[in-house]
Each structure stands twice: as structure tokens, then as C-alpha cells.
TrEMBL record:
Record key words, sorted: Metal-binding
Residue ranges of domain VOC in the record: 10-126, 169-283
Designated name of the protein: VOC family protein
A Pfam family recorded for this sequence: Glyoxalase
PANTHER family linked to this entry: CATECHOL-2,3-DIOXYGENASE
Gene3D superfamilies linked: 2,3-Dihydroxybiphenyl 1,2-Dioxygenase, domain 1
Organism: Sporosarcina gallistercoris
Length: 283
């Protein structure tokens, strides 16, 4: 099953703020292998297939460095089509001297790195859903060490990273929030997602269509963590793609019912979770 097409609700696009757009474009093009789809003096839309943007960079006025101990972006996660793509990327990033963390989550194999501003990035591949283990409504995930020898055995014969392959999508987003009770109500009763894993009292993993997670939230920056300043490096917004207009109207109604708010800006419907993380509701 494809967990990033309709009728599943999924994260289609992430927009992040950077301090120096020119330098950031170089990182995302030369190191990660994105192409430019559209560009203005203060923003750029990046693409893997030359047609659709899954990631945008924007340089706000008077941009300031990433602020610690705040809500906002923990990481956005790029999902590659094949295991060989991830293996080739490991070789490429190693040659570039990029520091990496990694993990085997049982449902996926993942690399972790930061861009030049400290924005967190996960790049991963999914294991087959037939290999995922569910107990009642929760999927089993862990943070085991990644077996690099086994992963690299899947590298293509040329062992050459040719840039983000066609079929790359925005797999999920993981957010810092200030608390979990109202946050869970917003994402479940407002946006209609299901909790598929609880990491103690520290984090929630939520999804649509029995995916392991489209959105995760955590309180690792502290309960009551404040929102960052509007011109701080970090998350600008992310887009949640809903199945159709009827679902979007029902979602807006549900958000208003639980005390949230949806605004229409430039023919886009925008809401924020209880911690101020901005979400564009798209169909």
C-alpha cells in the first residue's frame, strides 16, 4: 500500500526557515541532491522529480539562528523509494564528510543529519508493512543500531548517488510541542489522525491508514516550551494533504469544535496546533 497518496491523509510538503538562502540551496542541491523547481530572492521550492515540490526553504527578514528549548521542528523525514537509494546515500554522505546518526526502527531504516542551520533531517526507507508488528492499535518501533554492512550490501553496482530519485516523498514530520494532552486532542479529534504508538509520556506517533507515522510529537524540549520567534531558523509550516474537499470541510469543523482556529490566507486554509506549529490543510 502507498501511504502517501489519497485516500490516506499525509504530509505532502514542509517549509523551513534558513538564515542564508544561498548557502542553504548549495547544501540541499550539492549534498542532498535536490533540484530547484521555483526560486524567488527569499525562497526556493525544491523537487526530486522536477514536477512536485516536497520541501521549500525561506529566508525571513532579519533571520536569527535556531533557538533551543522551543517548540517547532525536531526533524522532517524524506522517504526514499528503494533500499539501494539509502545505501548509495550513505556512501555519498561519507565521502562528503557529513556527520550521520542512524537507527533501525523495525518499520524502517533511517539516517539522521542536520542542515547548515541545524534543521533536523531524517532520510529513510520503509520495510514492507508485512514485516511491521502490531499489538492492538500500536505498531512496534524501536531505536536499534542500523546494520550498515547489511545496508551497504544493497548499494547499486556503481555505488553512485545521482541525487534524490524520482519517487522520493516527504515521509513524515516530527515536532517539538509544549504538552501532549491538548496536542493529542488536536491531532486526533481535530485532524482525524490515529495514535499508533506512545513513547511513554514523552512522545506520540500518529498516522492515517495504518502507517507507522505521518506525524510525531514530543516534549523533549520541556513541558511548557515556548514557541520560537517568527524569524528564527526552523519550521515555517507543513502541508497536510486531505483526501477531498468534504474531508477538509469536516476537518475545519472539527478543529473549530475543539477550540482551534482555521484561517483562510491566499486561498489556503491554515491552522496551528496548540504549540503554534503551522499546518496548511490541502486537498
Amino acid at each position: 500500500m502507498n501511504f502517501h497518496t489519497k485516500p490516506t491523509t499525509f504530509v505532502g510538503h514542509v517549509q523551513i526557515k534558513v538564515k542564508n538562502l544561498k548557502q542553504s540551496i548549495s547544501f540541499y542541491q550539492d549534498i542532498l541532491g535536490f533540484d530547484i523547481l521555483e526560486q524567488t530572492p527569499s525562497s526556493v521550492k525544491l523537487t526530486a522529480d522536477g514536477k512536485t515540490s516536497i520541501l521549500s526553504l525561506v529566508q525571513p527578514e532579519n533571520a536569527v539562528p535556531k533557538q533551543g528549548r522551543t517548540t517547532g521542528l525536531y526533524h522532517f523525514a524524506i522517504l526514499l523509494p528503494q533500499r539501494s537509494d539509502l545505501a548509495d546515500l550513505v556512501v555519498h554522505l561519507s565521502k562528503q564528510g557529513i556527520p550521520l546518526a542512524s537507527s533501525d526502527h523495525l518499520v524502517s531504516e533511517a539516517l539522521y543529519l542536520n542542515d547548515i542551520d541545524g534543521n533536523g533531517i531524517e532520510i529513510y526507507i520503509d520495510r514492507s508493512p508485512s514485516e511491521w508488528s502490531w499489538e492492538a492499535e500500536e505498531v512496534k518501533m524501536t531505536v536499534d543500531p542500523l546494520d550498515f554492512d547489511d545496508l551497504l550490501s544493497a548499494s547499486s553496482t556503481e555505488s553512485s548517488w545521482q541525487g534524490m530519485p524520482e519517487g522520493t516523498v516527504m515521509g513524515h514530520i516530527h515536532l517539538h510541542v509544549s504538552e501532549l494532552v491538548e496536542t493529542e486532542e488536536f491531532y486526533v479529534n481535530g485532524l482525524g489522525l490515529d495514535v499508533v504508538n506512545r513513547y511513554g509520556r514523552q512522545a506520540l506517533f500518529l498516522s492515517s491508514g495504518k502507517y507507522h507515522h505521518h506525524i510525531a510529537v514530543n516534549i523533549w524540549n520541556g513541558e511548557g516550551a515556548p514557541a520560537p520567534s517568527h524569524n528564527s531558523v526552523g519550521l515555517q509550516s507543513f502541508t497536510l494533504v486531505l483526501p477531498d474537499e468534504d474531508v477538509r470541510l469536516e476537518t475545519i469543523k472539527n478543529i473549530n469544535r475543539i477550540g482551534g482556529n482555521v484561517k483562510e490566507e491566499d486561498r489556503r486554509y491554515i491552522t496551528s496546533d496548540p504549540s503554534g506549529n503551522r499546518i496548511v490543510l490541502e486537498v
